[in-house]
Every structure is written in C-alpha cells, then in structure tokens.
Description:
By secondary structure, the protein is an alpha/beta fold. The chain has two domains: 5-76, no CATH class; 92-351, TIM Barrel (Alpha-Beta Barrel), CATH 3.20.20. It is 36% helix and 18% strand. The protein contains eleven helices and twelve strands. The strands form two sheets. An eight-stranded parallel sheet has the order 10-9-8-7-6-5-12-11.
Amino acid sequence: MRNYYTRACNFYYGQQAQNLIKKKSALPLCGNKNLAFDHIEILSRDKKKKLIHIKKVNRLKKKIKQIVKIDIRKITNKRKNLSTNLDFSEPLIMGVLNLTPDSFSDGGLFNQSNKSFLHIQNMIDKGANIIDVGGESTRPGSKYIPFKIEWRRVKKVIASFKKRYPKIFLSIDTRKSEVMMKAIKNKSDLINDVSGFEHDAKAIDKIKQFNVWKVLHHMQGTPNTMQINPKYNNVLLDLYDYFEKKINTDFKKFKYKKFIIDPGIGFGKNLKHNLIIMNKISLFHSLGFPLLIGTSRKRFISQISGPIDSKERIGGTLASVLYTLSQGVQIFRVHNVHEVKQAILVYKKIISI
C-alpha cells in the first residue's frame, strides 16, 4: 500500500491540447496529443489533497516527488496497441453480446445463432471495435452455472467468429479457465473475467503463456453477494491498491503484460462508490494501462433518475460514457453501440473546435 497517489486532472482537448503540449505547458495523456493535462492531484489516505501544476512538481518534498515523477511517466506513456489495426488514438467501443437467458437487460434476446450473428453484424456496422461474448450472467444476485452449460451457449459464436469477422477484436466474458482455454484455441483476443481471475484458481496458470489481452476487473464478493452492503475504507484508493498489488504479484505470472483496467462499476459498489470512481477515474491512468468502463444500463442510472428511469437507460449511459471519455478512458463496454458511437462523434467534434 502506497502513501501517495497521483491523478491527472485539468484536461485540454483537440488543438488546444496540441498547442499546450508544444509549449510544454501541458503533458499528453497516455501519449495522446489530443488530450492533455497540466495539473495533478496528489491523494492520500489521511484525506489531504494537493492540486499542483506539472511545472511545480520539482518543488515537492523528495519522497513525494519520486513517487509523482514515476506516476507521471506512466500517465504520459503511449499505450500499447490492441492489435495491428486497433490503437487508442480514438475511443474504442466494446459491444455486448449476452448469450444467456437471465442477463439483467437483454437475457434471451440473442440466444439463437442467427439472431446472434445478426446482432454482431449490426454492432460492427454501427461502430463496435470489440465484441464481448458472454454465456453466464453476472448480474447482482445471479447464480453460478457449470462450465459445460456456459460453453454450450457461446460455442457456435466463438468457434466461427474469426472466420466471419477476422479483423474484429473478440473478447470472451467468463470466469472459468475451461471456457478461456477453448476461446483462446478459437483465436479470441481478450479474456474479460469480472472476478479479476480470482474465481477459478487454475485460470492464471492455464492462460499465463498465451499472447492475449486480459481485463483486470474489480469485484467485491461474488455476483450472488456483491451488492449486499459493500464497504470500503476509501473506494478509490482501495481499488488502486488492489490493481497495483495484483499487477505486482499474481499478474506477474503472465508472460505478456497485456492488461486493461476495469474498476467494475456496479460490482460490489453502492451508488456513492460508483460516482466517486467515475468522478476520479483518471487516477487509474498512473497504473500504466488502458482503462475500460462498463456503465451501460446499470442500476446507478435508475438510482439517480428515479421516476424518469427508462428501460435501456440510454441517457444515463451516454452521460457516463462522455464524462469518463473526457477523463481519458479508452474503451467503453455498451449495449447500445449505435447511440454511443453517435454521441462520441458529436462530442469529439465539439471539443475539436
């Protein structure tokens, strides 16, 4: 556990960002010259916060300065490309394909293979760069299902995906090492395990030598228990410590350090926890890896909107996507690909003026 944490803040966009970087008055976020910052917030568990301009870092006390300089290097470093045709110069959209009867918003809608592939094609046509395929619901209160049932649900899609869509990034949403291995054998590019590779004790050792990307996701408890009074000392810093410890211990076993950080909105968090994470999400850039967030249709939207909640919660989803995009999040896991893509295009055009 560290004493000080560094969060990039006070962002600039588009041409203004480029101009400030040229003048050395701001730094590029994750190597992106269209997104810059000129202040950092230094956080600590004693609740003291310090906001300083990047040019004043050298005035910090030696012990803090050493930590901050290492963090700034990680914050500004360009992120490794996902593939030869996918980088982080533009935000990436991960389209959700739930092949389950009981997912919280679209269970049972796409379980037939013809409907699955129609939905995949539609998401790709509307702007999805990644397709995330899942065969087990991990909604709050959901029950565990055996590996054979989960694999049977996703097998047809996973087995033929790369033949149909060779240039589209394929993600498997699973907690089970058996499903991970079968997906890897069928050329899946990404393993998205909401348990942070903790559910299945064999998972890390089974996949550690494979050159695939891994989502390092945070969840407190299990899907069946995670929303029963979740507690943290400091949700933001507790999550940071969790990721940093994992990267330096369990995840060291992975031969390829292809990690994506997902703070797990709604996974063992109450409304206040979720809002704090989204509000300060730029803290996680100092871990040195791309950030992914999944806010699509989640309960926090209804908790805020109350009587004007809606079935698909598109408005709340878009608000959370655009705010976290402004903080440098690179990947967005969503159900409504079309609407999110449109919102991102409009947002980017506005800030580029």
